[in-house]
Amino acid sequence: MLPRNAPALVTGAASGLGAATARALAAAGAPVALLDLSADRLSPLAAETGGLALACDVTDAVSAEQAVAAAAEAHGPARILVNCAGIAPAGRIVGRGGPLPLDDFARVVAVNLIGTFNLMRLAAAAMATLDPLEDGERGVIVNTASVAAYEGQIGQAAYAASKGGVASLTLPAARELARYGIRVAAIAPGLFGTPMVTAMPQEVQDAIVATIPFPRRFGRPEEYARMALSIIENPMVNGSVIRLDAALRMQGA
Predict the structure, then answer these.
(1) Which of 37, 42, 46, 102 is least surrounded by Cβ atoms within 10 Å, i.e. has the fewest?
(2) Which of 24, 3, 2 is nearest to 13 (CA)?
(3) What is the pTM of this model?
(4) Per the domain annotation, does 222 fall within a domain?
(5) 26 part of a folded domain
């Protein structure tokens, strides 16, 4: 699918991977709806891209329904969804203070996995009603997994479980939505220079970078965005989780 004139939704658009993807889609000619918890945080990006800023809690059914409806009213039903909203707090299953609070685990799963499914179900329902394009295609959904889905480290049990769920969701969703001409794929990024990473002390960043084979640096959000656009534009990419990790295989510690 060519992004030009194809309405798009991007979650987690206020920063990092989501902001870069929104910029890339807008540059490719897609009308973009920017979704994040706070519409105020989206204002600069909306002004830059001509996008529509919408407050959306991806874990809440009503909030997501309202955001998707507002985007459809402004741009028409979305043909593209890129789910980038996510959180990555660290926490051991059993730490110095005892077992990890269940609410902490549930929150990560709610944002990263349930939030992804929430927007996917709503976008797919609308896509299914659209007229087919070339090859019968009606829409494309790109979700964000992580290399932690495969090699989660100590303290990442909640994050790894949530991203493992996103990875496992990809193929059954693609198979189910194929009847409507809707493709589903996921990107599993390695270590990218998002605010969550760049907020770490420099010595910690340096130690992390030393574990990356090549290129020996953090990925750039723009490189994630380029992969997302490649998936959108290539009709044969469907049901796959694509690692974008510079050959990184994370160790346990």
Answers:
(1) 102
(2) 24
(3) 0.95
(4) yes
(5) yes
